[in-house]
Amino acid sequence: MAEPLSIAWLNGRFLPLAEACVPVLDRGFIFGDGVYEVIPVYAGKPFRLAHHLQRLANSLAAVRIADPHTEEEWQGLIAELIERNGGGDQSVYLQVTRGIAPRDHRFPEGGRPTVFLMSNPFRPVPEADLREGVTAVTLNDIRWEYCHIKSISLLPNILLRQQAVEQGAAEAILLRQSEVTEGAASNVFIVSEGVIVTPPKGDCLLPGITRDLVVELAMEHALECEERPIPEVELRRAQEIWLTSSTREILPVTRLDDLAVGEGRPGPRWHTMIGHYRRFVEDLRRGA
Ligand code: PDD
What we know:
This protein has eight helices and 15 strands. The chain has about 290 residues and is an alpha+beta fold.
């Protein structure tokens, strides 16, 4: 696991990450009462920043925490954090909690949100995972009914990911009432009868920023793509399965529950899509 970069932001100032401390009564610590974002950065430029900030605003509104910053303030703060950490490729982590208060489930009155940002080096997906694909297992989606909120309360996701890892897999693909929702920390796409399919947005999954770009790229390049429910049986006979996220970009799954997916290699649609995706990232790097 790569060490985080050294400069963080906490409640109004930049400081060394090692010195960033939050009181134990912070509701993030006590209740997991907060929301977050993970924003990839390529050559010093944040990826789809407006989309990430819109999702942050949506998450804050959904949990009724007043947005502590304007969009311009967030943009400035993120730009300065990236610069202070040396630019290049990074992964910005941003968290807002309901702040410090005596432990009580109901909201505190007049509380001030805690705002924390740090950055990690962006670690590209290992070449071997792209060449050969990764393994996934299916697990029952044990989470709540507000999965569209990017909440820091991630205990179910952590338990699911750990269970997958202990079964030798890179990710858990979650099933709710025999339909695919998403991964423990990713969105899911399949290729079925030559068509790219991903579950529709709603309360059962996080509206991934990477997911949305993949759907847009499919449209732009006239690749047939549908946003509709994926029954478990269709997942199991898919020609291709992909996972998308800010940290893993588009990752091909070539084994599901110990059976080969399609030919057992990253498929032709994945090769096409990752090409489009990389060109999008290259344009961002060049500032196009
Ligand atoms: N997680 N679904 C879940 C449950 C996630 O946690 C994530 C990302 C995604 C993909 O969203 P995006 O494309 O916007 O990264 C979908 C981040 C990377 C994390 O928790 O580290």
